[in-house]
UniProtKB/TrEMBL annotation:
Matching PROSITE patterns: HTH_MARR_2
Gene3D superfamilies: Winged helix-like DNA-binding domain superfamily/Winged helix DNA-binding domain
Source organism per UniProt: Paenibacillus piri
Protein name, as recorded: MarR family transcriptional regulator
SUPFAM superfamilies per UniProt: Winged helix' DNA-binding domain
Length: 154
């Protein structure tokens, strides 16, 4: 068998991992959306604005943090602006646009955070043993390090 091909067991493990993540993530997003009206994208934008920019970021930096292309983010921000969650303003001295969380956006994020935390605990963390947490942490650190170094090589 070619080194680049997966055998049945490897494919089964990959599909289990991927499916488990999608189910857990989907349940967390569903709980959040049903209780707050925010979409996954809304929450991601608001959370990153606060977490990485103290409430404001350049639009390109936000796109990079979201791992979204400029067009996708621009369309999403337009919808969020209409709902009063963010605003955009051109930068005075340089090219680019700054995205700013509004008081309404901050309030929506503050309302969503405990709901998201509860959902993560319910659908993920409460299912884990201490050994599971240790294994997941080790795996995440190892794959992050290896993925980062392989991305730099290409």
């Amino acid at each position: 068998m070619d080194k680049n091909e997966l055998n049945e067991e490897e494919m089964r493990i990959w599909n289990m991992w991927k499916g488990s993540f999608k189910r857990i993530f989907g349940r967390v997003v569903k709980d959040m959306s049903e209780n707050t009206g925010l979409s996954e994208g809304d929450f991601g934008v608001l959370d990153r604005l606060v977490q990485f920019g103290n409430g404001k970021l350049r639009q390109q930096e936000l796109a990079d943090l979201m791992d979204w292309d400029k067009s996708r983010l621009s369309h999403h921000l337009t919808r969020m602006e209409k709902r009063g969650l963010v605003l955009r303003k051109p930068l005075d001295r340089e090219r680019g646009v700054e995205v700013i969380i509004t008081p309404g956006g901050k309030s929506a994020l503050d309302e969503a955070l405990p709901i998201v935390s509860k959902a993560i605990r319910k659908h993920f963390l409460d299912q884990l043993t201490d050994q599971d947490i240790e294994s997941i942490t080790t795996l995440a650190e190892r794959t992050k390090t290896r993925s980062s170094s392989s991305c730099k090589e290409t």
